[in-house]
Backbone:
């Protein structure tokens, strides 16, 4: 079974409407007809929504079975592609609002949803999620989902890699100067976990751009040099994850094969088995 995956990372300005997004997607599929997975930035469909003004989140939020997701599911089925339109503001059954990444399958199903675990505090006031999410994108190809600031917490990438992800897809809306550091983190997360990482940031004027795709050895396969709208199209072989772990990064380093059967367990008292928000400040 093929382990290759063709993907298009769409560093774009936000569309003015769903109709505009549908038109954009139809054009992209004509331009990249063999591409299986299309990925857009965080909160891409929220248009003029100001990330720095979160005073009325509920007005922009919808449940996952609402009209926006139904429309996107139909679009994915029409085009026969895997579609990640970034994240949406989800109105949860609990009355709270989440920043939720969604993935639609070529059959028109909501294949996965992931609530951002680490909102960008103090600006982002959504409720944090609590569950890590991976999904199979046909066959043996496993993708882990991350939203923007999650990439700053190495525990997220490690957990998704431990769950079997070969590719981490990080949708991003970074309008600030620390995009330079995020580019380094993309490579670091790929190297430390020996996985592919795709980081898709918004184009100007909402974002700083500089989207990139990195392989399990930390090599940049494709990158946007600036903040203008562009598409990074590539075909990757996810079996490279297995090869890198078997033969080592740069032919040397094999962290997933570190331990011998005779090694003693290592306690990690910093977490006590979990990250507890009530004690996080004291652990610093």
Residues:
């Amino acid at each position: 079974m093929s382990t290759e995956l063709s993907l298009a990372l769409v560093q774009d300005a936000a569309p003015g409407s769903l109709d505009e997004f549908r038109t954009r997607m139809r054009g992209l599929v004509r331009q990249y007809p063999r591409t299986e997975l299309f990925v857009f930035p965080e909160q891409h469909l929220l248009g003029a929504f100001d990330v720095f003004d979160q005073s009325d989140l509920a007005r922009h939020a919808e449940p996952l079975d609402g009209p926006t997701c139904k429309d996107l599911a139909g679009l994915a089925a029409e085009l026969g592609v895997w579609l990640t339109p970034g994240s949406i503001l989800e109105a949860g059954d609990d009355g709270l609002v989440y920043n939720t990444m969604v993935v639609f399958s070529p059959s028109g199903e909501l294949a996965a949803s992931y609530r951002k675990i680490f909102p960008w505090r103090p600006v982002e006031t959504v409720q944090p999620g609590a569950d890590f999410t991976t999904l199979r994108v046909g066959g043996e190809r496993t993708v882990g989902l991350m939203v923007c600031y999650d990439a700053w917490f190495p525990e997220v990438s490690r957990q998704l890699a431990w769950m079997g992800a070969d590719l981490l897809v990080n949708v991003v809306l970074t309008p600030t100067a620390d995009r330079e550091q995020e580019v380094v983190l993309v490579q670091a997360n790929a190297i430390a976990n020996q996985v592919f990482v795709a980081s898709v940031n918004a184009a100007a004027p909402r974002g700083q751009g500089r989207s990139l795709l990195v392989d399990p050895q930390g090599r940049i396969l494709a990158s946007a040099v600036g903040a203008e709208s562009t598409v990074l199209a590539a075909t990757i072989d996810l079996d490279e994850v297995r090869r890198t772990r078997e033969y080592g990064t740069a032919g040397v380093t094999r962290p997933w094969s570190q331990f011998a059967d005779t090694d003693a367990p290592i306690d990690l008292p910093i977490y006590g088995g979990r990250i507890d928000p009530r004690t996080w400040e004291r652990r610093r």
Helices lie at 18-31, 57-60, 67-79, 154-162, 179-193, 239-247, 280-283. The chain has two domains: 4-252, 254-283. The chain has seven helices and 13 strands.
